[in-house]
Design goal:
With 596 residues, the protein is mainly beta. Helices cover 14% and strands 53% of the residues.
């Protein structure tokens, strides 16, 4: 019993001695030097712990420091400042005079990452650690109410993340590290998780497995693979990104995406390799709206430009209509006067089938180009309207509504072409060629077509004019008063050749040099038609060549001028007396606009 009492007294004495000695063991200068040394080793920056140091015994053994700064003065140029640093120490290490950090907590830290006018960053990781001098782990680091600021004087770009909270758990060198961070960037909350198998290799040189995810309302992103740190940072792993709304994603990252308003959902996945200067996404699976394709893409990213090159092959793809092309290619608040600035693209597209409004195409081969603030969709070839289609479409990229296009159609079914304009009383049947050079600039999307300008032509051989019976006219040329509109627009006429030429000014088509040849009859036509209202204001002349009169070798010619009014669905034929000469169409015809 006596021995037990003596042992208890000794233990109590030791505890009391340790407790009384703690203020001396917890030397603020000693611990301060240890913390500054370790943080300097990890950050590659000078570390200064200023302000008052307070010893804490509850709920853990540690010290609290105020006015923390990593990096040189002044404070605005420091890599990190914090209002308070809470340090938890390992009790056993304190007793042996070599205090070891168990955890750190930064209160309202402000990280400032800057690139000066010479391109030099203000941060530098310690890459000089030798195998016999490993970087020690950081233990558990937690952050509350943090801010990250980024500025680049070369590109004049500034970014800021606020409301940062999270943890970095790296027990010691040689063990894995886990990072869990949440914050707000450009008005959207996000969560990020990173797990590194060999974090020391990421801070110095070497290779480490890495799992990373980013989750926010505009985007879901993940990477699972390896990162190699040498003179460059190299990636080799599986990458996936999904944006439920391409427009919202483009606005969030403040980077342009061509026709983002038309794409809706955007998703990319594949094998990511390469460096930060040039990343390659092999075995790419791409979802653009409802279309799913495969291919290979490369990305070159710097402060001022994102360059995307590659190929994508789709089974089926939906392309924008001319009216939809009038929308801007992205949000108007993306940096720069042109919303395609900061982006370069050369992506080759192919599809077994494609649609653009009512136009159906097969075996599409096209390219999407974006360069110097301009976007261009180039259709090298496609099968459409039972013929071939090729051309270019260029949406405006200056936040205005509009487009320009140059479309060539060869060997097409003219009846299908007429059907694209809509149902009408008059149509064409047969094969032919067409070309349309169109452009539009409008204040709002609903009037893009009414502001249409350009020119077009349609030609064909040995076809049928459906809905017009020219024979009903030719039989009554001698007595035009007996020609009824109902007889003219009831039936059809086979023609030998047909040529239609027109130009468009502010949504109104003006016909010139339009000619139809039917056996011994030639029809010429001029006038105008409102493309939206589809009304007709046309006039022309019918010439019929007849056999020469008895005793004459000169064939006789019968001529009759006429008007066509009404609408495309309900036209009205009005014969005129032969002594009324053809003039211009009703009202003055403006000069044809340039489509160059």
């Amino acid at each position: 019993m006596k021995r037990i009492i003596i042992a208890a007294v000794v233990i109590v004495a030791l505890v009391a001695t340790v407790f009384l000695a703690l203020p001396r063991l917890l030397s603020a200068d000693t611990i301060k030097a240890a913390i500054e040394r370790e943080l300097s080793r990890i950050s590659g920056q000078s570390v200064s712990l200023n302000g008052e140091a307070r010893v804490s015994l509850r709920p853990y053994l540690g010290l609290n420091y105020t006015n923390i700064r990593i990096g040189g003065p002044p404070a605005d140029d420091s890599l990190l400042t914090a209002e308070e640093l809470q340090v938890q120490l390992q009790a056993s290490s304190v007793l042996f005079g070599d205090p070891a950090i168990k955890s750190l907590h930064l209160v309202r830290p402000h990280f400032r990452f800057k690139i000066d006018e010479k391109g030099k960053p203000n941060w530098a990781l310690d890459t000089s650690a030798k195998p016999d001098q490993p970087i020690a782990g950081m233990g558990l680091v937690s952050i509350s109410e943090g801010i990250v600021s980024y500025s680049n004087q070369l590109s004049d770009r500034k970014e800021q993340i606020t409301a940062i909270r999270g943890t970095i758990n790296w027990p010691k060198s040689g063990q894995s590290a886990a990072v869990n961070v949440a914050g707000i960037w450009n008005g959207e909350a996000f969560d990020a998780e990173i797990n590194a198998q060999q974090p020391t290799a990421l801070l110095t040189q070497g290779i480490s497995r890495l799992n990373a995810t980013l989750s926010a309302a505009p985007v879901q992103l993940s990477y699972v693979g390896s990162i190699t740190r040498t003179s460059a940072t190299m990636f080799d792993g599986d990458f996936q990104i999904t944006a439920p709304s391409a427009t919202r994603f483009s606005e969030w990252i403040k980077r342009p995406l061509p026709a983002a308003a038309l794409i809706e959902r955007l998703a990319l996945s594949g094998q990511l390799t390469g460096s930060l200067d040039r990343l390659i996404l092999s075995n790419t699976n791409a979802q653009i709206g409802e279309a799913v394709g495969e291919g290979r893409l490369s990305f070159e990213i710097d402060e001022s430009l994102i360059a995307i090159n590659g190929t994508l092959a789709f089974d089926t793809i939906i392309l924008p209509t001319l009216a939809e092309l009038g929308r801007p290619v992205g949000p108007s608040d993306v940096a720069g006067a042109s919303i395609a600035q900061g982006l370069a693209m050369d992506v080759r597209l192919s599809a077994n089938s494609a649609t653009s409004g009512p136009l159906a195409m097969q075996n599409l081969a096209a390219s999407l180009f974006v360069k110097d603030g301009k976007a261009l969709f180039d259709v090298a070839q496609a099968e459409a309207l039972d013929g071939q289609v090729a051309g270019t479409f260029q949406p405006r990229t200056d936040a205005k509504l509009g487009f320009s296009s140059d479309l060539k159609l060869t060997g097409i079914d003219l009846e299908q072409l007429a059907g694209l304009y809509g149902e009408g009383k008059i149509s064409l049947r047969g094969r032919g060629d067409a070309r349309f050079k169109l452009e539009s600039v409008a204040p709002t999307a609903d009037v893009v077509l009414t502001r249409l300008n350009g020119s077009g032509s349609v030609s064909g051989q040995n076809g049928t004019l459906v809905g017009v019976d020219l024979n009903a006219i030719s039989r009554r040329l001698a007595d035009p008063g007996t020609i009824r509109s109902a007889d003219v627009f009831d039936g059809s006429t086979s023609y030998g050749s047909m040529n239609i030429a027109f130009y468009i000014a502010n949504g109104i088509a003006f016909f010139q040099n339009t000619k139809l040849e039917v056996d011994d009859i030639t029809v010429t036509l001029s006038g105008r038609s409102d493309l939206e209202e589809r009304n007709l204001a046309l006039q022309g002349r019918i010439l019929q060549t007849r056999e020469a009169a008895q005793g004459s070798s000169v064939p006789a010619t019968v001529s009759m001028p006429f008007l066509v009014g009404g609408t495309a669905s309900s036209p009205l034929f009005i014969p005129l007396p032969a002594n009324i000469q053809n003039g211009g169409p009703p009202n003055a015809i403006p000069q044809a606009p340039s489509t160059e």
